[in-house]
């Protein structure tokens, strides 16, 4: 290969890499600029006036620019609290269900799996509207327990499908060997099956947590007007205040990235192999 051809290939790769980085980073750079822009009018390519005024209000340290009564901090903790409740509750329901689907011959198993898939197979808006009608009679609308239940229903799809595949991948002979050695069914599950299934269970937990943390529609229909999370705050601000919405979007994005980076340390195969 000639020197000119090599140089041409390297130039094409460099241009492609620059375009990819531009495609990925441009939206985030735009969010950062909007979050610190006091004045930014067309056709100026950069803001005419910069400042942290909208960040101070978003963090609840100042009032006057956007929604003075709503703080990103409060919405963030609402999102985290709900996700931390939804994740173990979803696992508590999905683990025995997934194990039964993976290990036992259950009548009408395809129909049962289809029922768990239904919340994602159809548009969620009519599901939440009908759920809201039921929750009104139970006084669950506008409460965190109501929002938690609304998040658990679609979260079960991810948890059951991932955990069922995880339990199916574990050879049954390992459980049979433990039982032949005198271990009970419960002991076998917690000493043999559960440690081997930990990577899949952690993966499903990540999906469930992030789904609940970023979920908007169920929170909107069930949580209003009392429960405000980061996605709801972003939606309410995006229609009238670009700066406040950008600050909210940055917090939501960075929270998800930090959470994924933290879990990445524990989802590595060399670490997971030592669990249990």
Outline the secondary-structure elements.
Blueprint: H1 3-35, E1 37-39, E2 49-50, H2 53-58, H3 72-103, H4 109-121, H5 124-137, H6 144-169, H7 172-180, H8 185-214, H9 217-223, H10 230-238, H11 242-264, H12 269-272
Antiparallel strand pairs: 1-2
CATH superfamily of the largest domain: MetI-like
Rg for CA atoms: 24 Å
Domains (count): 2
The strands making up the biggest β-sheet line up spatially as: 1-2
Q: In CATH, what is the class of the largest domain?
A: Mainly Alpha
Number of strands: 2
Structural class, by secondary structure, is mainly alpha
Question: How would you describe the shape?
Answer: globular
List the total number of helices: 12
Task: State the CATH topology of the largest domain.
Answer: MetI-like fold
User: What would you say the CATH architecture of the largest domain is?
Assistant: Orthogonal Bundle
Largest sheet: 2 strands, antiparallel
Protein described:
- With 276 residues, this protein is an all-alpha fold.
- The protein folds into 2 domains: 3-51, no CATH class; 72-272, MetI-like (MetI-like fold, Orthogonal Bundle).
- Helix content is 75%, strand content 2%.
- It has helices at 3-35, 53-58, 72-103, 109-121, 124-137, 144-169, 172-180, 185-214, 217-223, 230-238, 242-264, 269-272; strands at residues 37-39, 49-50.
- It has a two-stranded antiparallel sheet with strand order 1-2.
- α3 (72-103) packs antiparallel against α8 (185-214), α4 crosses α6 and α6 (144-169) packs across α8.
- The protein is globular.
- The relative contact order is 0.13.
